[in-house]
Write a sequence for this structure.
């Protein structure tokens, strides 16, 4: 199958990507299998040049991931922001993750329903790389004292984000700055933390994606949606060796929730 247009439908916007060279899904699948079959060199065993290139790819991946998670949060109406801190400093990742998992179980039991969330952890450098968590959820408002009782490990912070508009996007993006911050810190020290950085519930609703071969031009799409354009632009697709493999034009169009 080949396609040169990809449309992603979110509740709040539509994204259209136009590829100069059509994408062949069979060829891409074969290339991915060949790449995955290769033995990866561990980061600490790479040359300095390869480490720098790997750092750039990793940073680029997480930047794109953060933008996707921002849209995913809006798409699922995750408008409750919470922060969970440990009264007794915890520096061990497995222990911190265990407490996070227990918190989710207690929260679900308290609310008597499944919950949706996107979360990440952050190090409190001033306390010696102590873990704490930030999350966007769909739980609505819960009193601070009540939430602290459910958490049971220390202090909490909770805030409602207003329904979708420009300022709410900035508030949601604020959550994911901690991920980029951790990556930048790792680049400075030359050491990578293998701990998971992002936590997402499995029940999150994903956007609808449509791929097709179309004769519709970039200009025609922009003209047809002139009053609702959020952003237009272009970028280069590159492979794992940083070689250019395609050119992509994109259009972002606003949609009412």
């Amino acid at each position: 199958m080949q396609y040169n247009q990809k449309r992603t439908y979110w509740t709040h916007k539509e994204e259209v990507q136009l590829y100069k060279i059509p994408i062949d899904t069979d060829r891409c699948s074969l290339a991915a299998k060949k790449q995955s079959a290769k033995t990866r060199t561990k980061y600490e065993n790479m040359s300095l040049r390869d480490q720098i290139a790997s750092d750039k790819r990793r940073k680029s991946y997480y930047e794109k991931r953060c933008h996707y998670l921002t849209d995913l949060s809006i798409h699922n109406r995750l408008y409750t922001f919470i922060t969970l801190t440990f009264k007794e400093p915890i520096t061990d990742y497995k222990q911190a993750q265990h407490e996070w998992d227990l918190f989710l179980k207690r929260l679900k039991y308290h609310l008597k329903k499944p919950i949706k969330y996107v979360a990440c952890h952050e190090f409190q450098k001033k306390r010696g790389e102590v873990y704490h968590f930030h999350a966007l959820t769909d739980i609505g408002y819960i009193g601070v004292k009540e939430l602290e009782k459910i958490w049971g490990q220390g202090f909490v912070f909770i805030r409602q984000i207003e329904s979708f508009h420009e300022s709410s996007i900035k508030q949601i993006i604020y959550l994911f700055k901690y991920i980029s911050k951790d990556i930048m810190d790792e680049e400075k020290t030359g050491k990578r933390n293998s701990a998971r950085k992002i936590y997402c519930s499995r029940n999150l609703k994903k956007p609808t994606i449509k791929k097709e071969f179309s004769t519709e031009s970039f200009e025609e799409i922009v003209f047809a949606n002139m009053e609702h354009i959020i952003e237009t632009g272009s970028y280069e697709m590159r492979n794992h060796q940083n070689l250019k493999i395609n050119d992509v034009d994109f259009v972002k169009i606003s949609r009412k929730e």
Summary: The chain has six helices and ten strands. The mean pLDDT is 84. The beta strands are 2-9, 13-24, 80-85, 117-124, 130-137, 156-160, 198-200, 208-212, 229-238, 244-254.
